[in-house]
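Many introductory courses stop at the sequence. We go one step further.
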Amino acid sequence: MKRIAAFVAAMLLLTAGTWAQDGKGIYNKYSDNEEVSAVYISSSMFKLMGKVPNMQLSDGNSMNLGSIIKNLNSMYLLDCEDPDLCKEIKSDVNKFISKYDFDLLMEIKDKGEVVRIYTSGNEKTVTQFIMTASEYDAFTFICLDGTMSRADLEKAIAKATQNME
């Protein structure tokens, strides 16, 4: 679980900004619920974060995420541990993913936890990034919106996950 939490933290810094209106709609629907932890980050904050040159990874290596972060528009994060509410959020997220043209970029399964990363865009550019993490009765949803180089994003994800095995 610590590895997954580290991965989620890396992804938050790595990307940021979430999707279009439906991502915002999911966030707005659940963010005021007392059973849900919610985080929103604006494009202004990403521009500030984009000026930070390097991020230190847990393995001691550093990674420059400025080119990715400064082009993000928004990020929405929902985290829930209420089993019934998790099912409802997960259902809404799955409807959103299936409604639009998202590709499954990566899936990680480890001791009952499943992490999935989806992207939308074209061969060169990612315009939306979604990550979900499910573990027993918990669910986390992260959605980023912006214009990210697909090559840069994939390199950063590969570097952030290379020591997770």
